[in-house]
């Protein structure tokens, strides 16, 4: 574990240990979809995938997913065993996967699972926008890290981003829904292969998220919503700078056969 409190371990031994532990905790015979969350940049992705492939063959998992993987890592992983789902950040104000990763996933037949589809809660409403969202993170210290260091929620950046929120709020009224629903509907309309993960701990928010399925958007609507939040006008980064090394932009792994760093 490093100074950020996070660690990514994709070694075959650790992968198997984690899956065996998950099966025991859940008291199930198999897991439908198992993700390698983030990418271990010290371990060749082929090593991680080979172990996951064995676990599929043993019937302990059915499908394999990755998260925050680079295009190169996706290709190399998919060559070992088909990837079913790729979990990436994707929302109105985070769209950097659209140029290369989304087309690659569609070429390979990989489903896209956007996390933070509401921009870490930013588009969830005025109450959330006015304060930093208290989204659940692994530990209190990590939660504080996010609340303190996500620059999009700080100072002048937040003031600028509020203007973008107000634009989505106006569009939401046009469509007879909430700002959260229009933002989530925008993600849902990116394709039939897109299954967003809006997190919540409250029933009313769950109901609101489900309600976004009723929001129907035309191609013109999607463009209008996209244009309301120009990506070049979003101020700040979507994650703390000290955690950016865990993003897909830095997730290439050593070549197959390389010695794993310890």
What does this structure look like?
With 262 residues, the chain is α/β, with parallel strands linked by helices. The protein folds into two domains: 115 residues, TIM Barrel (Alpha-Beta Barrel), CATH 3.20.20.100; 121 residues, NADP-dependent oxidoreductase domain (TIM Barrel, Alpha-Beta Barrel). It has ten helices and four strands. Strands 1-2-3-4 form a four-stranded parallel β-sheet, covered by helices on one side. The two termini are 12 Å apart. About 2% of the residues have low confidence. InterPro entries: Aldo-Keto_reductase (IPR050791), NAD(P)_OxRdtase_dom_sf (IPR036812), NADP_OxRdtase_dom (IPR023210). It comes from Gossypium lobatum. Pfam families: Aldo_ket_red (PF00248). Keywords: NADP, Oxidoreductase. GO terms for molecular function: oxidoreductase activity.
Q: Compute the number of structural domains.
A: 2
Q: How much is the radius of gyration in Å?
A: 19 Å
- The CATH superfamily of the largest domain appears as NADP-dependent oxidoreductase domain
Q: What share of the residues does DSSP label as strand, in percent?
A: 5-15%
CATH architecture of the largest domain: Alpha-Beta Barrel
Strand order of the largest sheet: 1-2-3-4
Alpha carbon gap, first and last residue = 12 Å
Q: How many strand units?
A: 4
Q: Give the class-level CATH name of the largest domain.
A: Alpha Beta
Number of DSSP helical runs: 10
What is the chain-wise order of helices and strands?
HEHEHEHEHHHHHH
Mean pLDDT: 87
Shape: globular
Low-confidence residue ranges: 135-139
